[in-house]
Amino acid sequence: MKNITIAIDGFSSTGKSTIAKELATKLKYVYVDSGAMYRAVTLYAMKHNLISEESFLKEGLIDALDKISLAFKFNPDLGFGEIYLNEVNVETEIRNMKVSRLVSKVAEVPEVRKKLVEQQQQMGKNKGVVMDGRDIGTVVFPEAELKIFMTASAEKRAKRRFKEFLERGEQVTFDETLKNVEYRDHIDTTREDSPLVKAKDAIEIDNSALTRTEQFEKVYKLAKEIIGQD
Known about the structure:
Elements: E1 5-10, H1 16-27, E2 30-33, H2 34-47, H3 58-64, E3 70-75, E4 80-85, E5 88-89, H4 97-107, H5 110-123, E6 129-133, H6 136-140, E7 146-151, H7 154-167, H8 174-190, E8 203-206, H9 212-227
Parallel strand pairs: 1-6, 1-7, 2-6, 7-8
Antiparallel strand pairs: 3-4, 4-5
Helix pairs in contact: 2-4, 2-5, 4-8, 7-8
């Protein structure tokens, strides 16, 4: 059985990470959540007063990049690697609405993208990896053997994200969540450096009407066809 690189790109809240984790577990591949890396950098910027909803000290963040260390450490209870920022587990902390509101601004910064893309390429250099994000199939691994592009309506995605927020006890409204999804779509698709676009050879999956199981089976079947796994 050969190892391949699997790139799963798409809009926010399309369930990329969930499917990527399940696929990596099933194939016994390494899973890398590239979005968590951008969120962790955003959290660092927030904690060091480099970014807020009113201001963004881009040069300050660029100067601080050498002080930011990111790593994934496998959690056997969860079955995937959690993100660590300067040796501190921030897997839960990066998932709140405050980070969600600011992460697209941080992800626009070319110097941030360069640093993280290089780290992502290093993580996947030996193949046997499933990585999800916005530019995995177009920039990080343009030669990936399997590229998936996931999409769904903004309303459907906002409902999923809103449910996650409520489960974590966050006090947000559905309208706030929908506006955040639409805002991130705009920023992600219009930024100059590595905008969110479907790779020419990517297979698009609109999961608006698919269950999680149906979605997983679709992607797993595509992977098996390339890998040749029974």
